[in-house]
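Quick illustration, no need to memorize.
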Amino acid sequence: MKIGQKDQKKKLVQDKNTFVDPSFFQIQFSINGKVFKQAVDGLLSFETENLDDLTDEDLDKALDQCSYYRFTFLAAGAELETAIARKQREFDTWYAEAATQARHLLIEERQILKADKKIPNNWLGSMTKEEVRGKILTNPVFKDEYESYSNTLDNMTKQKSLCNGLRDILNERGRHLQSLGKRRLENRRMSFGVKDYGSV
């Protein structure tokens, strides 16, 4: 599923001297074959520079887009939340197995240390969770897999935060557009009233 407008005429940049890396405005991820991709700079800006030049059609179109994309980002965030929970369970299962193997490795290392260095048992103490985690983080057998899970979860969490943030931004934008439309309508009524009053 592709989110967004294909052709962007105006970019969300404050002025011509400002450079913002385009990757900051990109959201892209795939869940169960559903691809979410959006360049949000065009979504959050108007094609025209002057808001007074906006037509009623422009406002209606912008409100429709707000509703559509707000729900799209809501759906994307929900999909990501489910996927994150599933990936976290997968990671937890992997970690439990890796921790068991890491404990066995640590026990072997301790036995070798005691045999070679003649260190008493009470000097080593009980094995801690930190030692097990340290072994997982440093041992080549576990390290790459651990980093792969961590990077995936970090990226998914980041994308979910972006989707939720954009949903909220679009919600506020919708309110702003509604206020703009109401103000325009009020101005027309007042203008109409003045013309009527002047012609009496």
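Confidence is low (pLDDT under 50) at residues 1-13, 195-200.
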